[in-house]
User: What shape does this take?
Amino acid sequence: LIFSVLLGLIFSEIFNANSIEYIPYIMSGLTVWSFISNQLLDSINIGQSYSGFIKNTNISIYFLVLVNLIRNFINFLIVAPVLMILLYNSGQNIDFLGFIHGSTILLIYLYLTSYIFAVIGLRFKDFKNAISTIFMVVPFATPIMWKPDLLKNRPVFLDWNPANSLINLIKSPL
Assistant: This one.
């Protein structure tokens, strides 16, 4: 929360934007991105984190991925009311139905992708290092900290960026 506000203040000065509008913009993008990245990075370690539990019980990895998804979504929902209050105070309209629909689609996507990441993480131990390196670069190539209308020529990577589409599922209704 503090990180988002500080980045919002700094980038609003850099981009010469209104901080009352820019702080909620950057906060909503970073909140959704942290939920997505935490879920996918945590799912890679499911095999190692629950190895003793998996060996001693007859539990499926599908269930462990679901538990991990629910835990990360609850963490996201803790920050969401603060974000919605901040957006409401900045004068933006909030579409709660669109937020629920976008969240549902994102949760289904993250569940399926998390399962794939968990299976790959069981086989390749260095997979988390490669993905975490990619995830450090993605926020700079995705309009999380900058608005797409600041670019004169809209780059192709913006339209084909899957992170941009995932973040906009929740960010657009807000």
In short: The mean pLDDT is 82. DSSP finds nine helices and no strands in the chain. Residues 61-89 form the longest helix (29 residues). The radius of gyration is 18 Å.
